[in-house]
Amino acid sequence: MDAVEATLEIKNRLGLHLRAASALAETVRRFKSVVKIAIGENEVDARSVINLMMLGASMGTRLKLRIEGPDAQAALEAVRKLFENRFGED
Hints:
It is a single chain. The protein has a four-stranded antiparallel sheet with strand order 1-4-2-3, with helices on one face. The chain is globular, with a radius of gyration of 12 Å. It is built from three helices and four strands; from the N terminus they run βαββαβα. Strand 2 and strand 3 form a beta hairpin. It has a single domain, classed as 2-Layer Sandwich (Histidine-containing Protein, Chain: A), CATH 3.30.1340.10. The protein has helices at residues 18-29, 49-54, 72-84, and strands at residues 3-9, 34-39, 42-45, 62-68. The chain starts with a strand and ends in a 6-residue tail after the last helix. With 90 residues, it is an alpha+beta fold.
């Protein structure tokens, strides 16, 4: 099984609020791989909008991603693009 890890920074002004968390959850649901996102020891399943919002990630927060599965690299690239595009905001 493939696994990749990365650290991404939230660059949009409003952080991981409802719309951004929804966009992230929708993005990772397109893949078979399991996507986990963590701040420190607090790790959540990225498919859950509520769990993502409970991270309380604001602008400048660095999130650690761990992706495991057959399409892990493709999932990472899709998530990275979403972060780089500031979730379509700003």
